[in-house]
Structure prediction request, 148 residues.
Amino acid sequence: MTLSVLAWPVLAKPPVVTGSAYAIDGDTLVIKRRHVRLFGIDAFEHDQTCGRFRCGVEATSALRGLMEGRIITCRQQDHDQYGRIVAICKLPSGLDLGAEMVRRGLAVDYRSFTLDYMDEEADARAHKRGAWARGFQSPVQYRREHPR
Prediction:
């Protein structure tokens, strides 16, 4: 007698973290003591400048302003090398925080991981929003040249 067992993949929804949040920088926030990295974007580093524009400080400030007093819902996509949750995070209105940061010119589409925010990036570039009005070094290149 032969016994065969079929293993069906479990179709589980990705974990969700919800609550009030605060921004660490332009693409990282904390909800309930859990560090969450916004999926698909790369914001300017805190010390980074774009010409005379303090694009890193502005990115952090913008994310703080977007989240202030609101409940944030983050749907996990992955984990990064630092153990942070990588997630798509939204406001109660449905506004995607990553998309909005790119649309404002305070982050770029992180092409190494996704092309989801290329339209927002093209719009920011066309309308010279945020760093696009001044010219800038990509956050990846900035980190390479300014290791912590």
Q: What stands out?
A: The chain has four helices and seven strands. The radius of gyration is 18 Å. Helices lie at 55-67, 97-103, 118-126, 139-145. Confidence is low (pLDDT under 50) at residues 1-8.
